Amino acid sequence: MALLEVSDLTVVFRRRGEAPFTAVDGVSFAVEPGQTVGLVGESGCGKSVTSLAIMGLLPRRGATVMGSVRFEGTELLSLSPRQMRDRRGRDLGMVFQDPLSSLNPVVSIGLQVTEVLERHRGMPRRQAMVEAADLLDKVGIPDPRRRLDEYPHQLSGGMRQRALIAMALACRPRLLIADEPTTALDVTIQAQILALLAELVRDTGTALIMITHDLGVVAGLCDEVNVLYAGRVVERAERHELFRRPRHPYTHGLLASIPRLDAPRGERLVPIQGSVADNIPWDHGCAFAPRCPRALEACVEITPHMGEEGGRLLRCHNPVQENQEVPA
Amino acid sequence: MLRYTLRRLLQLLGVVLVLSMLIFGWLRALPGGPVSALLGERGTEEGRRELTAQLGLDQPIFVQYGKFLGRALSGDFGMSTGVQPGDAAVEIFLQRFPATVELSAFAIVLAVLFGIPLGYLAARRRGGWLDNLGVVGSLVGVAVPVFFLAFLLKYLFAVQLGWLPASGRQTGGLEATRVTGFFVLDGLLTREWDAALDALAHLVLPAMALATIPFAVIFRITRAAVLDVLDEDYVRTAESKGLTTDVIRRRHVLRNAMLPVVTTIGLQTGALLAGAVLTEKVFAFPGLGEALALGFERRDYPVLQLLIVMAAMVYVLVNLVVDLSYAVIDPRVRTR
Amino acid sequence: MTGSVSRSGARPPLLGGRKERLDALAASSGKGDAGVSLAASAWRRLRRNPVFLVGAAIIVLFVVVALLSPWLAAHDPSARLLEGQVSRARNEIPPAQEGFPLGGDQVGRDLLSRLLVGSQQTLMVGVFATVIGLAGGLVLGTLAGALGGWVDSLVMRVVDVMLSIPSLLLAFSIGALFPRPSQFTVILAVATVQIPIFARLLRGSMLAQRGSDHVLAARALGVRPRAIVFRHMLPNSLGPVIVQATLVLAVAIIDAAALSFLGLGNPDDSIPEWGQMLGGAQNVIDSHPSLAFWPAGCIIVVALGFTLVGESMRDALDPKNRR
């Protein structure tokens, strides 16, 4: 049995006086215990909303969540807020994008770590402090005892993110969701944090959902990759498969727009034209069609279905051919 | 922290210096110049000449300013000419100070006690009836002239219903033995319960009138601050940790939302004296505000001079206290 | 009514919190990439905001009445037409009657006519006090913000000290400077209090912009400093200044009433003004509360109108609320 099974997850936002907006449109994927799964796409593709829906963190008013999220066989979407509260932080942990704004500025690092331990593992404050120092040590924060008394603004960006990871992993959750955990950090720090995540996940056997717009992050970390576009999964494949032979024109485009050091001098990057704002909804044809270099007549008329071929899922009428290498 | 406090005290010194110049300039600009201003209409020709010499008005302006400072520092602000003719201005200040402190403290406690919880509830149920009522109420509350509100309260609860006394600080014959000058406290200290209760009853209406604007402001700031904090990423982090709603509210929402509220409480406290001028006049409450009101009416410049300086000093001091307490609550200020 | 109060820490005018409020307001200027689009988007949100619409309706009605009051009033507001019905001994004032729907005041003048005509002086006090305060603040704030250095330090020290005296108290002190109060001294007293407020607002706005990209770009292009101040910085400060001016109008009307209440108002009541009417009614309020209630009601409604418009404009200009 999969650890987490998301099927047909749909999230609709309704605001007074505005048309309902479908942020996630029938997303399905599964995470096996200990596996690392990537959710990749541009901002606005629904990857963050997906993660918040899994965590039960979407606002109760204004957001409608449909479909199914099964965690170890339990349907999370039908749990009461209180039951969900018991699971968050214990079974499911989450690391957010901006470590500075995600930490409470007026509460010491120590208390922010120990409060999880007190809540879910019933530790008394003293014991929790010892454990917290241990946790900070594990995530590579030097001099952890002193750090416990410090406040977020006294830590560097990388240290803050390490502290957040320590909090998320404090109760050894079986699933960790990392939502763009490196985006707000310096490049050198990014690599360190990714290495740390990879190491922790390997050592603790925690499954990880990695949410990012950065294919580079995915390449180093994920077992399986889901590429999202306009609220739907457009391509899913094993990591090496995906990088070697991207089939969906969108995936292909994403890879082609990454600068590569080994590319011949003078070669141009190939950007994807337009932006998500040009999207048409999935009801009439493919949402990516207006930006797609391979769009056919059919693409604007018939909504493509998810098809499977050789362990790969693909939602496209005119996929990139197998023999076409990534231009590089 | 110590250096911060010292720096702030130094700044305070600068403010007082500029303030003294303003007051000095104000005295010179008064109708008839400082001599008639200080002596009032009752000054004799002889007294005039004497005071002119004493004030050194024939000397260069810098010398005059220096003498003014010297007199002010020694607490000599002259004799009252209108409020309590013949009494030293400082005497009047000392007499009336406890009354206004008692009233202001009661008012600000009322404002805080109602403003913060209601502001918090309004924010939690944004768009609910309490929120809408509170927002409309706080906007209207600010548009009502304070003295009119005082009249309204007095008319309703004292004149029409007769529930509470209409004026003064205590009923004749019920005076508590003076210990501190704070009548409620004195009554409690000397176990003269009826006197304490009587003094408290006299405080209720003026305190309500005085508390209205601080209440409206504290309500709105609390509401706005809580709404802001509820949107913060760290509240989402706290939710993602599965903490109990109680911990999230206390530790993560309220503690952060209180930062701007503390500033507001301080600023409102410092500015209370302006409202007290109007409120105390309506209720004939013998405090500093009434002295100011009488002083303005009767052009009692020695008293005005002293009380305005004190008002500004209190305002600045309260601000200092607020900034220091801010440093206690907010580690970002403390450990800078 | 949701969201009618600025979430960035709206404080009502006149009482405390001025420094922080002004700085926050000042910082909101010059954040838009282009003044036009900011104003346009603000206007779009305002048009649908019921708070703004109610406030604007009150203001429009107030101004129309003020302009037309000579024709609207049935009687001469200073004529003691009902003097015969006033009795000092029996503490009586003329009751409501045919032609005098609100009755007369303590000397027998028609109350309704006085209220109608009073709107004119009230509007005048508000507008003049605001304009004078704004002009003074504009000069000081622009000098401090544009020149910086010791000019800035000096101006701001004085401004800070003025702000450290509770504003009403400051207005009273200014009012007390004049041996014979008049409408003019009332306006001057109320206006002076606003000068440091506008000065701080404008200076804050200037400082916020000095380091901003559009000013840096203008400097890099070699635009003369004076042109930068007048063409690039001042127009961007306009939004916060308009918001503040609207709020000040309400404050001015209320402050003028407080001055009258303390005997620092215009003693000549042949041309009525609401604050003066309210202040003048204090001695008869226990026996004839209506003489205070009517002008007070007018002041409250009009002050509320300006406050609603000011607050909703501040909300609309707040970059945090842009969607």
TrEMBL record, chain A:
Q: Which organism is it from?
A: Streptoalloteichus tenebrarius (strain ATCC 17920 / DSM 40477 / JCM 4838 / CBS 697.72 / NBRC 16177 / NCIMB 11028 / NRRL B-12390 / A12253. 1 / ISP 5477)
Q: Which UniProt keywords apply?
A: ATP-binding, Cell membrane, Membrane, Nucleotide-binding, Transport
The ABC transporter domain covers 4-255
**Family of the protein in this entry:** Belongs to the ABC transporter superfamily.
Regions annotated as coiled coil: none
Superkingdom to which the source organism belongs: Bacteria
| PROSITE patterns xrefs | ABC_TRANSPORTER_1, ABC_TRANSPORTER_2
Kindly report the protein's main subcellular placement as a broad class.
membrane
Q: Does the keyword Membrane apply?
A: yes
Q: Which InterPro entries match?
A: AAA+_ATPase, ABC_Ni/Peptide_Import, ABC_transporter-like_ATP-bd, ABC_transporter-like_CS, Oligopep_ABC_C, P-loop_NTPase
One Pfam family, please name it.
Answer: ABC_tran
Q: Name one GO molecular function term.
A: ATP binding
Q: What is this protein called?
A: Peptide/nickel transport system ATP-binding protein
Is Nucleotide-binding tagged as a keyword? Answer: yes
Q: Which SUPFAM superfamilies match?
A: P-loop containing nucleoside triphosphate hydrolases
How the protein sits in the membrane?
Answer: Peripheral membrane protein
Q: Where in the cell is it found?
A: Cell membrane
From TrEMBL, chain B:
Q: Where is the ABC transmembrane type-1 domain?
A: 97-326
Query: What are the UniProt keywords, alphabetically?
Result: Cell membrane, Membrane, Transmembrane, Transmembrane helix, Transport
Q: In the UniProt record, does the keyword Nucleus occur?
A: no
- What Pfam families does the annotation carry? BPD_transp_1, BPD_transp_1_N
Topology relative to the lipid bilayer, per the entry, is: Multi-pass membrane protein
CDD domains recorded: TM_PBP2
Where are the bilayer-spanning segments? 12-29, 103-123, 135-157, 199-219, 257-278, 303-329
Q: Organism's domain of life?
A: Bacteria
* Family membership: Belongs to the binding-protein-dependent transport system permease family.
According to UniProt, the name of this protein is: Peptide/nickel transport system permease protein
Q: Tell me what organism the protein belongs to.
A: Streptoalloteichus tenebrarius (strain ATCC 17920 / DSM 40477 / JCM 4838 / CBS 697.72 / NBRC 16177 / NCIMB 11028 / NRRL B-12390 / A12253. 1 / ISP 5477) (Streptomyces tenebrarius)
UniProtKB/TrEMBL annotation, chain C:
Query: Where can this protein be found?
Result: Cell membrane
Give the residues annotated as coiled coil.
none
Q: What keywords would UniProt list here?
A: Cell membrane, Membrane, Transmembrane, Transmembrane helix, Transport
Q: Where is the ABC transmembrane type-1 domain?
A: 119-310
Q: Which SUPFAM superfamilies match?
A: MetI-like
Q: Which residue spans traverse the membrane? A: 51-73, 123-151, 158-178, 184-202, 241-264, 292-313
Q: How does it sit in the membrane?
A: Multi-pass membrane protein
Which family does the record assign?
Answer: Belongs to the binding-protein-dependent transport system permease family.
Q: Which PANTHER family match?
A: D,D-DIPEPTIDE TRANSPORT SYSTEM PERMEASE PROTEIN DDPC-RELATED, OLIGOPEPTIDE TRANSPORT SYSTEM PERMEASE PROTEIN APPC
Q: What is this protein called?
A: Peptide/nickel transport system permease protein
